[in-house]
UniProtKB/TrEMBL annotation:
CDD domains: GST_N_family (cd00570). Residues 3-64 form the GST N-terminal domain. This is GST N-terminal domain-containing protein. It comes from the Eukaryota. It comes from Dissostichus mawsoni (Antarctic cod). Gene3D superfamilies: Glutaredoxin. Coiled coil: none annotated.
Length: 64
């Protein structure tokens, strides 16, 4: 149902868990996900900044 969505998330992030839980609760499984490394500053990559100027996760490509 959410196959077009790609969730960009970071390990240990409560805001990311919140979104993942909400998607599960809404029965919106099947979305793609991409784990970003805080250590490598991947949340500040151009890919993320293009969709979230704060460079924070969670972020989503093709949101619902
Ligand atoms: N208001 C945002 C906050 C998200 C947020 O603070 N994410 C943290 C990870 S838990 C983050 O990306 N921190 C990196 C930074 O702020 O540079 C939300 O609730 O989704």
């Amino acid at each position: 149902m959410a196959e077009n969505m790609t969730l960009l998330w970071g390990s240990g992030s409560p805001p990311c868990w919140r979104v993942m839980i909400a998607l599960e609760e809404k029965n919106l499984q099947g979305y793609n996900n991409k784990l970003l490394s805080f250590e490598k500053m991947e949340h500040k990559s151009q890919e993320v900044l293009d969709i979230n100027a704060r460079g924070q996760v969670w972020s989503s490509l093709n949101p619902l």
